[in-house]
Amino acid sequence: MPNQTTSPPPAYGTTEHAHMVAGHRWDAIHDGLQWLTYGHLPPPLRPYSAPFYAAAVNLLDAIGTDSPELTTAINGLVAAKDSAVRAGIRHTTGRAGSVPRPQAVIHPPGLSDGNQ
Description:
Blueprint: H1 15-22, H2 27-36, H3 46-62, H4 68-93
């Protein structure tokens, strides 16, 4: 019997796993699942994102037919995940985001300032 090596499946919650799960689905569904991955997040933030990825994977397993409604469901999970991660950042750091706010408001040049 020849020696066959198989690579392990991709880690759950990574972009590679999302591609494995949704690579054959509509582009919008595949893209939405990519936004739900959490393997790239710092470990303290992963628990806030992981349930949304799991819900999306469960939906894709249960619903084999791509549709606008399924795309909307995945996009809703993306929006909810974004809010949950921001809430988690506020909970763990006491501030409203991972990027410090600027000390002064900077007004970039625009079309109405005469620099046309």
